[in-house]
Amino acid sequence: MKRKQGATGADEDGGESDDSSLVNVDFEFFDPNPQIDYLALKRLSNQLFQGDAERLQIQDLADLILSQPLVGTTVKCDGRESDPYAFLTVLNFHVHQNRPSIKALIEYLLSNSSSNPEFHSTLQNLIGPTALQSTNHVAFVFSERLINMPVQIVPPMYRMLADEIQWAIDDNEPYRFTHLVFVTRVYRLSAEEAAELHSATPRTKRNKGISAPQGGGVFSFHPEDELIQKHASHVADYSFSSSEPREKDSFGLDVGGRMMLVPIENLPHLIKSFNETYAPP
Fold first, then answer.
1. Looking at residue 114, which CATH number applies to its domain?
2. Domain span at residue 65?
3. What's the rounded Cα separation, in Å, for the pair 243 and 187?
4. Considering its fold, how many domains does the chain have in total?
5. What is the pLDDT of residues 77-112, one digit of tens each?
6. Can you point out the beta strands (E) in 83-240?
7. Is 275 in contact with 157 (CB distance < 8 Å)?
8. What are the phi and psi torsion angles at 30 (to 5°)?
9. pLDDT tens profile 204-224
């Protein structure tokens, strides 16, 4: 076990509860474990990429992530033998460029950035076929968690990841990156949907700053993504290729993806922002 941290639990609808029903939960942080975490990691991968997961060789991706247990963190509540509720790690595009999952991921990123010419050109220069032969390495940040996990687990996970990257560099391991590529999920709301969601949010939550979005637009599933975006040099939203056209009266959220490119020199500033914004209660 890496360390243990107390955090505030969530209520049944996935949001944080009011002060009268707060529950303290101990979250334990572990290194990835190939014997225990494989199935949960596949589920989190499918949650992250939604229907596009079939394109991305998720089984190979899980195997690859679990093949480097000294870099990355899982979060559990019931000890080492339990399923992880959150996962964070990095993968080197250059070192693993011949793995099926990394080949598929590179094609996926380049394809879904094509509507943003500047971002697409930058990615071509970082992880395109010619760029993969250079000595400038780029990392994919795999970060996903169950939707009702509190954001307060994020700062320690990223602090540990930064430490592990530095220790790997000190040991001459290939973790000296120039950029980090984040992939996350977003959802889109019309102005009418946003107004309806806002009106349905309990007043106690709105008073505590946990209000639903107001006005139409694109919103992040995870609040820390807003901070990542502020430290990114490029951001692009895209639709999942498997998504069906969404009719006006459809139930559920209109979900899409977002990719963000963060220069490695911005990582300490990003972690500082996490620490300041999402300190444990």
1. 3.40.630.30
2. 3-277
3. 12
4. 1
5. 989 999 999 999 999 999 999 999 999 999 999 999
6. 86-92, 137-145, 177-189, 217-220, 234-239
7. no
8. -125, 155
9. 444 433 445 555 588 899 999
